[in-house]
Design brief:
Two copies of one chain form a homodimer.
Chain A (H helix, E strand, L loop, with lengths): L11 H19 L2 E2 H8 L3 H13 L3 E4 L13 E4 L5 E7 L3 E8 L4 E8 L7 H18 L9 E5 L2 E3 L4 E5 L4 E4 L1 H9 L5 E5 H12 L8 E6 L3 E7 L2 E2 L31 H4 L1 H8 L6 H13 L3 H25 L3 E6 H4 L1 H15 L2 H4 L3 E4 L6 H16 L2 H4 L13
Parallel strand pairs in A: 4-7, 7-11, 12-15, 15-16
Antiparallel strand pairs in A: 1-3, 2-3, 4-5, 5-6, 8-9, 9-10, 12-13, 13-14
Helix pairs in contact in A: 1-3, 2-3, 4-5, 6-14, 8-9, 8-10, 9-10, 10-12
Chain B binds a DNA duplex through α1, α2 and α3.
Chain lengths: 412, 412
DNA sequence: CAGGTTTGTGTTCCTCTCTTGCAAATGTCT
DNA sequence: AGACATTTGCAAGAGAGGAACACAAACCTG
């Protein structure tokens, strides 16, 4: 009769879930913490923390270790640390010119990582899935001691419909409405849920949680390769939009007098700051791909004027678009990833100059522009974070109901 | 020692707060609900709802009334209704060419409203505060039965620093770093907290909660008068940004070859879609203000070509900027307010055409553009919502601790 | 129009979870 | 070594929602 949009009531069951979630999440994001730090960060009492941590210890999620000597007075507080081997996820990435796989433990530790080049041609779903499965199998063979992953996260260079993992559009892969999530789930056959998302959105997530935007609540991540993707964090939450296509900043109209874009419209940001625009400005071969861009950046480092100037012009257009985003979103940090992080030193002055010229004082004063600190792996690590999300949101589902046993503290 | 960013743990005290908050919020937003509807919407059990509603009845927040006959089988469920007279807020607005005051009851009922014209000249803080206090006094004199407001919300045409209610910049008022909140609090002397916010942000809030964007989670509100302001809702939450200056869409760079903007930069959206641009295109006096715009719209209604064409060009530029916002934010609804809602019929086709041409299919398919349904009062009503927010977030603070009395159901 | 069905209420425990309070432990500082 | 600060462990307590039963009031059916 009624269709509740969201059940907002708090029940005792949800209280426990929220509190366990808070503890696991803090440990995942900050690393080992003492019990008293957990008390401070969650606002719960010592007794509650004791009981909850006890449950997590019983479920092999965390261990308690001897206290660190910090030189502070008072009884030392045991360190609570996640058991990174007991819970792992599989992270996959389908980038424009590479495939990557990683096994990541709870807490963010990367146990295994491998990246292979991929030709920039259109590829069939089957080939890509086969390659990824092959990489995943290698990873598991190399480290057989790991558990079955509790989830699989996939970063893909394309527009992804989050509800079913279908890639609605992947121009660099030649994909339209490709059911990547379902095929990967079947091919991997791990029994773990497979979550697919856009690579820039995941890059933003990774930089937000573990990279250059750590601690900021409002973040814009701009990922430039062939196309320009973006990921946005607003108030500490990824901006997804009505049907999950938010953050597509590459196709903001920026120059009404500009060039036609491969998306069909004209004057998109991508047409001014994408790889092709950069190469064209410097007079490099437009189909030179990553190597040509690398050469261009190397030439700029040696002071070759065409390269320097091309990067400066790109930086200006980058700044123009960012100024708009600064006004609209008032972010704390803008992270430049992909090609923009590799070319960062040659762009940043012009980017900042445009932001200063075009953005409102109040907003531009608080923003800083930084290169991606996770480098090429940002989307891959974001995919791992995506795969961990269900666990972080509800550890109870993996922990099982309370055992009833009195929690026992065993300090090693 | 530690500075918790946010206390994320759920304590028994916060559970009660959250549940009462959920009930009061649902009633505030949806109007009277039966108990069984509350059960469905909160996910709590009948027992819990009964107990919580009993407390609210005891605190004179709500009344329970005889059930409505809906023609559905089963025992009728009493209607729970907020007592709109027992809790009111004072809403104030400082618009470009008017001042307004309203007394609004919990649930959104407007008990009193008055709007007076204001010359478009720069005004001193003292004069504005005096005028507002005068209006507020009249309102309270006219309806002396009302309680003292539990809060005061102020919508102002300018950039507002939320933490202290200082208007950092109000170009139409000639204000720079004006401590509006503090002065109003002192002058009104109501003992109630005074919250100040940007008028477009509050317009967005009002349209989101009670207007054209009701039910949507992702909303863009564009408010056009002299300048162009914006308010953004992302995932059901107002986008505030790092220091509260988010949503300033009027100064997105839209046309690098455009005109200088009064903000100091060039080619801002405002320079293409603001009042002055519109009047200039039609050949009307640039300082004609609201009357000139009204005349222009009236002329367009009669088919005068200059007026129609000027509105169409404005609509196109409006569409260009909105296309960018559609790509970035993937909203469900775009609400056009202020001048754009009055000129809506003459703009909308060109707006939609530009969005179709420039925005990505996936995002533009789900978005609709609607005129503000609350008209000129949207920011004022948003100010009321702002003032209610502390109550909605924590009814316990106004209700007091549980009485211990057994909740008694008394159906009138 | 009687009886069945459905939906919802009132009431009484019950369970779950966090809180409180006290004593003990364990470090630093003087 | 003693004072002091901080944290832990444990046990009892309090607050809040949940479950189950009996009953009530509407609609629907034959």
């Amino acid at each position: 009769m009624f269709t509740p949009r969201e059940e907002v009531g708090q029940r005792s069951e949800t209280v426990r879930r929220a509190n366990l979630s808070a503890i696991v999440r803090e440990l995942h994001l900050r690393g080992p913490l003492s019990r008293s730090e957990l008390v401070a960060w969650t606002g719960l009492t010592r007794s509650a923390i004791r009981s909850l941590v006890g449950d997590l210890v019983a479920g092999d999620f965390v261990v308690e270790e001897a206290a660190l000597r910090l030189g502070t007075p008072g009884r030392p507080s045991p360190q609570v640390r996640l058991v990174a081997d007991s819970v792992v996820v599989l992270a996959l990435e389908i980038a424009v010119d590479s495939l990557a796989v990683a096994i990541v433990g709870l807490g963010g530790e990367v146990h295994w990582k491998e990246r292979v080049d991929r030709p920039r041609a259109h590829s069939s779903l089957g080939d890509i899935v086969d390659d990824l499965c092959h990489l995943a199998k290698r990873a598991r063979d190399q480290r057989p001691s790991y558990q079955t992953p509790i989830g699989v996260g996939v970063a893909v260079a394309g527009l992804v419909r989050p509800i079913d993992g279908v890639v609605a559009a992947g121009p660099n892969l030649g994909w339209i409405d490709v059911p990547l999530g379902a095929h990967l789930a079947a091919a991997l056959d791990l029994g773990a849920p497979v979550e697919v998302a856009n690579e820039a959105d995941l890059g933003a997530l990774a930089e937000f949680r573990r990279g250059a935007a750590r601690g900021a609540e409002d973040v814009v991540y701009v990922h430039g390769e062939v196309g320009v993707g973006g990921g946005i964090i607003v108030g500490g939450r990824p901006l997804s939009g009505t049907n999950g296509f938010g953050g597509e900043i590459g196709h903001m109209p920026i120059n009404p007098a500009g060039r036609p874009c491969r998306c069909g419209s004209t004057g998109c940001w991508e047409t001014e700051i994408g790889e092709v625009a950069l190469l064209a400005r410097a007079g490099y071969p437009l189909d030179g791909g990553r190597m040509a861009v690398a050469a261009l950046i190397a030439d700029a480092a040696e002071g070759r004027p065409e390269a320097v100037e091309a990067l400066r012009v790109t930086g200006r257009w980058l700044g123009v678009g960012l100024a708009g985003l600064v006004n609209v979103l008032n972010p704390r940090v803008i992270v430049l990833g992909g090609l923009f992080s590799r070319a960062f030193p040659y762009l940043i002055d012009d980017v900042n100059a445009e932001i200063s010229a075009l953005a409102l004082v109040a907003s531009r004063r608080v923003v800083s522009v930084a290169p991606a600190s996770l480098g090429i792996d940002a989307p891959l690590l974001g995919a791992a974070e995506l795969a961990f999300e269900p666990l972080l949101a509800d550890p109870v589902a993996w922990l099982g109901p309370r055992t009833g046993a009195v929690p026992q503290l065993v300090v090693a």
